[in-house]
């Protein structure tokens, strides 16, 4: 029996991984050691056109537009479009031949069993038995020609073969996480894009922190690296994941950061890339790190920003860890020297220091539980980071974002929220202006909330967050299902 990884099965069926996991949790699809049998996939999606993934492509396109771009690692096709078409044709021809071969083998086995039975018959019974065998062969051939299951299986194999050419599936051990490497991207870049936290330092081949051992499969070095592997390491299959791509499906032994203490404390000199004035009192600041230094952090965490004049402030990162070189922050004008400098003197191209990461306001990633995100004012910054990361790992069953603000710029990220709502059938955006935490909690209670399954992530001014938590616990939400980030006023 053939098995598929969850990521590949979801792609072939034209659904998201989170939807597939939801069906598994409901018992509609069985798994074996984290994989799905081809027959079970076809049984669960009998009417799915396995050669038509246009709907999923549309969702992926909108998601790419809604999430931050990583222009230095844009996915590219391995070759021209004509090569793609030819490869798909070859995949289809190969699939047809393999399907015919499998059917022939099965028919030969059945025929062998029947012929063995004929040998024990008497001469008087043999003619009738031969006629019956001939009729059986004719009917069996007719069944094979009309077998829709075989046709579906062949189409699945066509898509799987083509997908293996265009995107290799990489499985990490011991965690069992898997992701796709597309086009010419490195294994490390693909893992970061998928929201995973493999070890790395410079991401350019200098430090060796991204060293991992290839257990099975083939890789290809796409760039030279200064870090030297020992001969023993080479013989054991070690590579630098920042400098290699996947040729075939891979199994890799690699360390991953599972908790905030697994990440190193980093100091990076970054430059101001853009200063976007959302209102007279709010700036969206984008910083860019050097090519050899990518900030490693978990969604929802904070860093300390220090200006050239020594003024500093700790701020939550408002962007996804999948792009650790381009970092976004929301800064409100206040009476402090740091925000005054940001608004009045800091210019594009100036340098500042990033130190961190800090904080434990992170996503619970080992579950598909539905998530409710609640942001008050600038609390949207860490909440935005959490949501973008949740989308990249494609694990959570459903999302709901409640954003309450009384600031003059209003819901300044509403375009991003609408883009996600259009792309994801499981994303809900509920903006409000002037509602108290208790009123928002009442709105949540009116929805279909499972107190034992939903998880809540709350960020904003300390007083509002505290009131929100109190109201949720009064509603019977367990405290362990509530994560919060209380921002400085």
From TrEMBL:
The keyword Oxidoreductase applies. GO terms for molecular function: ferredoxin-NAD+ reductase activity; iron-sulfur cluster binding. Residues 168-258 form the 2Fe-2S ferredoxin-type domain. Residues 265-364 form the FAD-binding FR-type domain. The keyword Coiled coil does not apply. Gene3D superfamilies: 3.10.20.30, Nucleotide-binding domain of ferredoxin-NADP reductase (FNR) module, Translation factors. This is Ferredoxin--NAD(+) reductase. It comes from Thiorhodococcus drewsii AZ1.
């Amino acid at each position: 029996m053939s098995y598929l990884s969850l990521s590949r099965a979801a792609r072939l069926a034209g659904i998201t991984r989170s939807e597939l996991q939801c069906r598994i949790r409901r018992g509609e699809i069985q798994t074996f050691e984290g994989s799905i049998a081809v027959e079970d996939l076809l049984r669960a999606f009998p009417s799915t056109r396995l050669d038509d993934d246009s709907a999923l492509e549309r969702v992926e396109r909108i998601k790419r537009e809604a999430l931050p771009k990583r222009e230095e690692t844009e996915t590219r096709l391995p070759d021209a479009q004509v090569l793609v078409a030819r490869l798909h044709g070859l995949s289809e021809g190969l699939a047809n031949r393999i399907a015919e071969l499998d059917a022939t083998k099965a028919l030969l086995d059945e025929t062998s069993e029947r012929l063995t039975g004929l040998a024990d018959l008497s001469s008087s019974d043999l003619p009738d038995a031969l006629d019956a065998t001939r009729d059986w062969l004719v009917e069996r051939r007719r069944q094979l020609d009309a077998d829709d299951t075989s046709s579906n299986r062949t189409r699945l194999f066509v898509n799987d073969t083509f997908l293996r050419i265009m995107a290799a599936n990489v499985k990490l051990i011991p965690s069992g996480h898997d992701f796709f490497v597309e086009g010419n991207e490195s294994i490390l870049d693909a893992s970061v894009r998928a929201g995973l936290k493999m070890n790395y330092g410079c991401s350019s081949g200098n430090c060796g922190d991204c060293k991992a051992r290839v257990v099975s499969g083939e890789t290809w070095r796409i760039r030279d690296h200064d870090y030297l592997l020992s001969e023993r390491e080479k013989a054991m299959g070690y590579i630098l994941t920042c400098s290699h791509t996947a040729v075939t499906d891979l199994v890799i032994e690699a360390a991953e950061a599972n908790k905030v203490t697994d990440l190193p404390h980093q100091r990076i000199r970054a430059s101001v890339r853009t200063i976007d004035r959302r209102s007279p009192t709010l700036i969206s600041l984008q910083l860019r790190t050097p090519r050899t230094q990518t900030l490693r952090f978990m969604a929802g965490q904070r860093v300390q920003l220090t200006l050239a004049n020594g003024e500093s402030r700790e701020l939550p990162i408002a962007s996804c860890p999948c792009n650790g070189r381009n970092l976004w922050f929301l800064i409100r004008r206040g009476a402090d020297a740091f925000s005054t400098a940001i608004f009045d003197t800091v210019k594009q191209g100036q340098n500042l220091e990033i130190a961190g990461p800090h904080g434990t306001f992170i996503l619970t990633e080992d579950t598909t539980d539905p998530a409710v995100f609640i942001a008050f004012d600038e609390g949207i910054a860490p909440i935005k980071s959490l949501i973008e990361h949740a989308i990249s790992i494609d694990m959570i069953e459903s999302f709901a974002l409640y954003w309450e603000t009384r600031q003059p710029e209003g819901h300044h990220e509403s375009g991003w929220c609408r883009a996600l709502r259009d792309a994801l059938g499981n994303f809900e955006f509920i903006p409000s202006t002037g509602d108290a935490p208790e009123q928002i909690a009442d709105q949540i209670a009116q929805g279909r909330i499972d107190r034992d399954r939903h998880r809540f992530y709350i960020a904003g001014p300390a007083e509002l967050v505290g009131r929100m938590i109190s109201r949720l616990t009064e509603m019977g939400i367990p405290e362990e299902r509530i994560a919060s980030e209380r921002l400085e006023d």
